[in-house]
From TrEMBL:
The active site is at 443 (proton acceptor). It comes from Jannaschia faecimaris. Residues 4-326 form the FAD/NAD(P)-binding domain. NAD(+) binds at residues 178-185, 201, 270. This is Dihydrolipoyl dehydrogenase. PANTHER family: DIHYDROLIPOYL DEHYDROGENASE, MITOCHONDRIAL, DISULFIDE OXIDOREDUCTASE. Keywords: Disulfide bond, FAD, Flavoprotein, NAD, Nucleotide-binding, Oxidoreductase, Redox-active center.
Length: 464
């Protein structure tokens, strides 16, 4: 068996990016992946396929609601569900093959199969044992069940995000358990396809951790699109019988019990680290209380030579957080100073409008007793947004009251997921809101709303 510098277990965004960077830095690298295709959850059953479905159904929404207003008359397109799924699968194929190509180009070996670690320095895949100086666990996460309810998921009637991307037909009714990112993205997909979607959320507001003003506006806009919400309600039981599901939930305010029936139930109550089958117990690897692999600042586990990145360790379960950790760890292993700035990790929800945020929320600033100022700007004041039926939403910039340094930014509006990055760059450079406000932004672009919010932190926005 070949001797590697690095063997990475898992080819999701954490693992594959880490592998490419290791190879670029001169380390002999292999990735162990048991799926038929590379790319992990993100490329196969997560970020990428859901974005294809969001794009397709948003296009349908545009045709149904906005085409006629622009003088584009005629029958709206009808939905060919099989073709929509085929388009989604084609997008997956293009992306996963892309990683295969990148592995070949960078001379990263793909060891096919499921890996385990019998001891430091060794990775077992099937009957073969491969040797490596460094082993990196990047095995990702799995959908978590409804806490305390242990629902039987059949991926047909009661589904996780994986089954929701493969339904045999478009359901007439759907209950989504959990008003987080997955529930709202996939809930939007089906609402646009005509499904009657009800989201049940345990907390009093959707998207926990989100800036409260943004979350409120987000719920309002999704309701306008037809999604129904039952908040402050805990789901205690979900059962499937004869191709239909029954959901039992209790309202937290008065403990009253309720029941809903649906063709499909999407369980979207979070994800849990995927650590089974790796042999971690035998190695004595230290875990956190929440079942994640404990690591130090350099992603080293408690066992020398074994590292972990991405969803299996602490922090937000986001593809780009895993990617950054992968790059940082590769650099550390190559003797460089790899580093991730956890204060500047954007979060994006790819609904329409999109929701994006970076840095601290107003609630967090209040909690810390920080002296801050708020610059807000509505997309209604943005010419480009008005032209594109995209005036819903706003930008909220938070800056230090004394120094003007940007502390956070929260956007609900068109292309929010792309717009947020100018603030990420600004924050990485320790910029003040005035720095953004004094930067020329092309007209007419959505990005002008970012500048206007920065201006609103100072003397005031122009178009407000
Ligand atoms: P989540 O943690 O975002 O949301 C789960 C929601 O379920 C929470 O609001 C929670 O209060 C609620 N909940 C829990 N138990 C409940 C119960 N018994 N009854 C009613 N509600 C209940 O988890 P989600 O949406 O499943 O996503 C999993 C992970 O995947 C997250 O870390 C997310 O960031 C990531 N992800 C990110 C995406 C993106 O960046 N666009 C897209 C999809 C997933």
């Amino acid at each position: 068996m070949a001797q590697y510098d690095v063997i990475i277990i898992g080819s999701g965004p954490g693992g594959y990016v880490c592998a490419i960077r290791c190879a670029q830095l001169g380390l002999k690298t292999a990735v162990v992946e048991g799926r038929e295709t590379l790319g992990g959850t993100c490329l196969n059953v997560g970020c990428i396929p859901s974005k294809a479905m969001l794009h397709a159904t948003h296009s349908l929404h545009e045709a149904e609601h906005n085409f006629a207003k622009m003088g584009l008359k005629g029958k709206s397109p009808s939905v060919d569900w099989k073709q929509m799924l085929a388009y989604k699968d084609d997008v997956i194929g293009q992306n996963t093959k892309g990683i295969e190509f990148l592995f070949k180009k960078n001379k990263v070996d793909w060891i096919k199969g499921w890996g385990s670690i019998p001891e430091a320095g060794k990775v077992k895949v099937g009957d073969d044992t491969h040797n490596a100086k460094h082993i990196i666990i990047a095995s990702g996460s799995d959908s978590a069940n409804v806490p305390g309810a242990e629902v039987e998921i059949d991926e047909k009637v009661i589904v996780t995000s994986t089954g929701a991307l493969e339904l045999a037909s478009i359901p007439k009714t759907m209950v989504v358990v959990g008003g987080g990112v997955i529930g709202l993205e996939l809930g939007s997909v089906y609402a646009r396809l005509g499904t009657d979607v009800t989201v049940i959320e345990y907390l009093d507001a959707i998207t926990p951790g989100q800036d409260a003003e943004v979350a409120k506006q987000f719920q309002r806009l999704l309701q306008k699109q037809g999604l129904k919400f039952i908040t402050g309600a805990g789901v205690s039981k979900v059962e499937a019988k004869g191709g239909k599901a029954t959901v039992n939930y209790a309202l937290r305010k008065n403990d009253s019990q309720h029941e809903l029936k649906a063709d499909t139930v999407l369980v979207a109550t979070g994800r849990k680290p995927h650590t089974e089958g790796l042999g971690l117990d035998g190695l004595g690897i230290k875990m956190t209380k929440r079942g994640q692999i404990a690591v130090d600042d350099g992603y080293a586990t408690s066992v020398e030579g074994i590292y972990a990145i991405g969803d299996v360790i602490e922090g937000p379960m986001l593809a780009h957080k895993a990617e950054d950790e992968g790059m940082a760890l590769a650099e550390i292993l190559a003797g460089q100073a790899g580093h991730v700035n956890y204060d500047v990790i954007p979060g994006v929800i790819y609904t329409h409008p999109e929701v994006a945020s970076v840095g601290m929320t107003e609630e967090q600033l209040k909690e810390e007793g920080r002296d801050y100022k708020v610059g807000k700007f509505s997309f209604m004041g943005n010419g480009r947004a008005k032209a594109n039926f995209a005036g819903d939403g706003f930008v909220k910039m938070l800056a230090d009251a004394k120094t003007d340094r940007i502390l956070g930014c929260h956007v609900i509006g068109p292309m929010a997921g792309d717009l947020i990055h100018e603030v990420c760059v600004a924050m990485e450079f320790g910029a003040a809101a005035e720095d953004l406000a004094r930067t020329c932004h092309a007209h007419p672009t959505y990005s002008e709303a970012m500048r206007e919010a920065a201006l609103a932190c100072g003397d005031g926005a122009i178009h407000a």
